[in-house]
Amino acid sequence: MANVAFIGLGNMGGPMAANLVKAGHKVTAFDLVAASRDQAKSDGAAIADGSAAAVKGAEIVITMLPAGRHVLGVWNEVIPAMGKGTLIIDCSTIDVESAKQAHALAAKHGMASIDAPVSGGTGGAKGATLTFMCGGEDKAFAVASPVLENMGKKIVYCGGAGAGQAAKICNNMILGISMIAVGEAFALAEKLGLSHQALFDVASTSSGQCWSLTTYCPVPGPVPTSPANNGYKPGFASNLMVKDLTLAQDAAKAAGAVTPLGKHAQELYKAFDASGHGGVDFSGIIQHVRGLAPK
Ligand code: NAD
Predict the structure, then answer these.
(1) What is the pLDDT of residue 294?
(2) CA of 190 to the centre of ligand 1 (A)
(3) Of the residues 50, 192, 208, 215, which has the maximum number of CB atoms within 10 A of its CB?
(4) Would you identify the CATH topology of the domain 166-291?
(5) What is the enclosing helix (H) or strand (E) of 275?
């Protein structure tokens, strides 16, 4: 078991740190928000006065923060305070460029680093069933992997620095687009007088089959556990989908890739968000799609 510093104890980081405590690691944690620190304390973590204090004596440092600028800010603060040979892992979803800068910063100070964004949402964070997508040197991945296994059920090595973030945004671009496609199909079926269940029964066993349909069906009924059955309570909020599709568009621009459906999906989720639905599960985009029909 390791001495682990955990910085960023929000909706994801809080339960992830709690799972490390449960697995027997000695966790020292910090967040800017007092309520998150209090929760981590009651979950069994030691609370430090700040990020730099949290990493003293740690063998592994984990960050779970909102965006690239937060990660670079915290890494700039903690790396000089870390002992030699410490591994630093960022599990946040951030832009590929910031992830590469973070790796370069760690390398400059002789520290090993991994970018390891997750999929699986808050349920996966609580249940320790997250998927981790990892980028960095394979030696660093070998050290990170057993600790990540205490917070997730699938740990995938994707390649060099930033490859985890690249995998995350490509995956979520598929997800954002496919959820709109499934929503459009149900909206069309409604106009054609085809029942939700009939479309589901056909498409879920035909070539239209995908996760957005069979696990996360955007209409109530066919998949009782999907957010559509619970007033579109997230789940995965639409504003987080906007964030990930924007990261995908930024990466596409920087890399010279053309992603017309990714761009259109970003615009649709942005419009849904702007109409006051940012906190609604992203599968609620079907409501926006229905609303585009002429009255
Ligand atoms: P969150 O806003 O709930 O938590 C982020 C935490 O970071 C907050 O508690 C905040 O106080 C803390 N923080 C910010 N700056 C800090 C600093 N300088 N020092 C210490 N703490 C600081 O967000 P979340 O939902 O936990 O998501 C975290 C990351 O995981 C994001 O990058 C998000 O995109 C990604 N993610 C979220 C989900 C999800 O379903 N919520 C799913 C997959 C990935």
Answers:
(1) 87
(2) 38
(3) 208
(4) N-(1-d-carboxylethyl)-l-norvaline Dehydrogenase; domain 2 (1.10.1040)
(5) none
